[in-house]
Design a protein that fits this description.
The chain is mainly α. The protein is 45% helix and 9% strand. It is built from 13 helices and six strands. A two-stranded antiparallel sheet has the order 1-4. A two-stranded antiparallel sheet has the order 2-3. Helix 7 (194-208) runs parallel beside helix 10 (237-253), helix 8 (213-227) packs parallel to helix 12 (265-279) and helix 10 (237-253) packs parallel to helix 13 (286-296). The two termini are 35 Å apart. Residues 87-145 have low confidence and may be disordered.
């Protein structure tokens, strides 16, 4: 399965053509052919053959992507724009998801992909270093990912490299220092953490709609940090109120058995238990406690 996440502005036309050899849409590069299709679109030549847009799904899609803006999409999208589904068939799903839970303890990356940190305009970016493989109808046991097809997820470190050993031990319990590495200090509270929430939404869509193993892992990585950052919960209540609304909407989309099937229920139970314990503290804002109550129900 291959997906693409596009942002299309008003009156913009993107023309793609089906390539039967690779069974994938490709953007038409021939300028004359492209312009002919664009002119046809603007003359409404193709309208009789189009299905109606499912307007009833618009509000849902908006709620799931509200924090994904143009800049974030440009940063996270793969170089090829195509997001490839990973090894999730019945033969390998159980094995892969067990790997995720094991790897989450130390924030590594999939067995099929090596990762490196890269400094990019002050942001830590995670890039894949892998070999290219061809797509087949069957999923192999050792699926590999090409760098051009891998989303540029933000690298989430296990700890702040500047931390002392004592601070590192504390970070195992309170991940605020890691959260502050991901979100720069000094931003106004009304916009603090917005890019991280956008990436949480992007990674959720990658794994829920695009069946991306990498997206699933990144989603869990972000949740782990956000839900276990004790000091940040008390100092950034607006961020956490927005986070709860995003997370609640995501959980509404998945069946009750979903995380149990993916061997992820134990992880989710653990981080939510930690989060609710922190929110119950008297230092948490009343509004945040109210929103957390909705999630508990």
């Amino acid at each position: 399965m291959v997906s693409i996440f596009l942002e299309i502005s008003e009156s913009q036309v993107i023309v793609m053509k089906w390539n039967p050899k690779i069974e994938q849409l490709e953007i038409i590069k021939d300028e004359d052919e492209h312009n002919r299709y664009v002119e046809g679109v603007r003359r409404f030549d193709f309208d009789p053959f189009l299905g109606p847009y499912p307007l009833e799904q618009h509000s849902l899609w908006k709620s799931l992507t509200v924090f994904i803006d143009h800049d974030l999409l440009q940063k996270l999208n793969p170089d090829s724009l195509w997001i490839h589904a990973d090894s999730i068939d019945n033969r390998t799903k159980e094995r892969d998801m067990k790997k995720v839970d094991e790897m989450m303890q130390q924030n590594p990356t999939p067995n099929s992909s090596k990762r490196r940190e890269k400094q990019n305009d002050g942001d830590l970016v995670m890039e894949a270093e892998t070999t290219t493989t061809t797509s087949t109808s069957e999923t192999t046991d050792d699926t590999k990912y090409t760098s051009e097809n891998s989303p540029h997820f933000t690298f989430i470190p296990q700890r702040d490299p500047k931390d002392t050993q004592k601070a590192h031990t504390h970070a195992l319990l309170d991940k605020t220092s890691i959260l502050y590495l991901l979100e720069k200090a000094g931003k106004p509270e009304e916009i603090w953490g917005i890019p991280l929430l956008g990436e949480l939404q992007f990674s959720f869509i990658c794994f829920w709609l695009g069946q991306s193993f990498l997206g699933f892992q990144q989603w869990k990585n972000i949740l782990s940090v956000v839900c276990q950052s004790e000091q940040a919960i008390y100092t950034h209540p607006e961020f956490y109120t927005r986070f709860l609304k995003v997370f609640f909407e995501q959980l509404r989309q998945v069946p009750d058995t979903f995380f149990k099937d993916l061997e992820g229920e134990s992880f989710l139970s653990y981080v939510l238990e930690s989060f609710f314990e922190l929110v119950d503290d008297h230092r948490a804002s009343i509004r945040l406690q109210t929103e957390a109550m909705k999630l508990r129900q």
